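Troubleshooting log. The previous structure file for this entry was overwritten by mistake, so regenerating from the original sequence record. Sequence copied from the archived sheet and checked twice against the printout by T.R.
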Amino acid sequence: MTDVPISPRRRRDVIDALRRGTVPQHGLDVLAVGLARFEAAIDDELSSVAGGGAGFKAVRGEYGSGKTFFARWLTERAKRLNFATAEIQISETETPLHKLETVYRRVVENLSTPTASSGALRDVVDGWLYFLDQDASSNGSSATDEATDELMQKRLATVSREAPAFAAVLRQYRLAQASGDSAQADGLLAWLGGQPHVAASVKRSAGVRGDLDHYGALGFLQGLLTVLRDSDYAGLVIVLDEVETLQRMRSDVREKSLNALRQLLDEIDGGRFPGLYVLMTGTPAFYDGQQGLQRLPPLAQRLQTDFQTDPRWDNPRAPQIRLPGFTPESLVELGSRVRDIFATGAADPDRVRGVVDDEYVSDLASAVGGELGGRTGVAPRLFLKKLVADVLDRVDLYGDFDPRRDYHLTLSSAELTDVEREAQARGDRRAATSVDDIDLDV
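Regenerated output below.
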């Protein structure tokens, strides 16, 4: 094996995340097993969005199939094309989908750019104002307040019709920045990001009242897109992760959430949001079940895709795509990649590769899958966590550690997710094939 081409920082981010049992935020291209089939279609769609279009993609997959990984792989790919991105997880308490003002607020809180991590709204707005001043003084003279304000009015003309408050607050933010009033500027930026409880005096300075509501949220999203595109960003990618949680909500909340989703798709199709790409993830039960998308037939019809054929012939350009999940072979391939990434920063790379060879990686993958009832698709998170934290770290730290001799796989209930725990329980039930296999308290 040769060293995997990855920078020390990206290597550390990837390995640290896997050690914790989470999906890495960066460096996912080196871990992308089985995603090559989607690359061309995704790149074409992002290119279309960058050219002024808009797009929506639904991703389906069972728990453990890599939906969150796919979403972060796509956003990392989008950032290389100079998109801003935001990933939000749908939940009834934190981010209810039917409250678009909360969805917008979470988008802003998690806004990320190729040069800034989450919470990048200030960088984006300040960069936009800089470009505005540069364009206003394009004749070679210094930009006057009047010239800049006039150009701002023109740039925000469309937004002002839909969300006049967005444009008003931007203008006042510029004045607060110019006068050195950082407290007012911070308050205005918070209100622009949909935050509640902004001081009344701050809002009065911009001539606005109240907080952002459901109906104003889409106008503010339109304003954010305008600012991004005028700042030379290609657009904005929003990930709505774990949308299947709608199935567990009250029926009235679920139906309002599905209607909000349909409204968003209608607006995208209607051309209201040039530069916007929305990715939604969910389980097959959400897309096909009566407690999910099928409760709203117009929305279900919009995303309906034929998955009756062999997965080899799936259309990656379709509005809904499926992730096939991991097979034993692809899990071993992923584990071998992680081993090689780890080895690039190890004290003795050759020892790491020799002791934790492909055969051992395969044995560990089989053992973890076996503990989870043979459900390989559920195993990746736990398998990679065990591989890094229990095996590779010890091989790197201790020169005489041999995992074949010194390590025995154990799984505690505390380290399992609900889905992994259920898979383990199902495996235990299948293993008990006779009364002699069942432990009784007597």
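Confidence is low (pLDDT under 50) at residues 431-442. Archived copy saved in two places this time.
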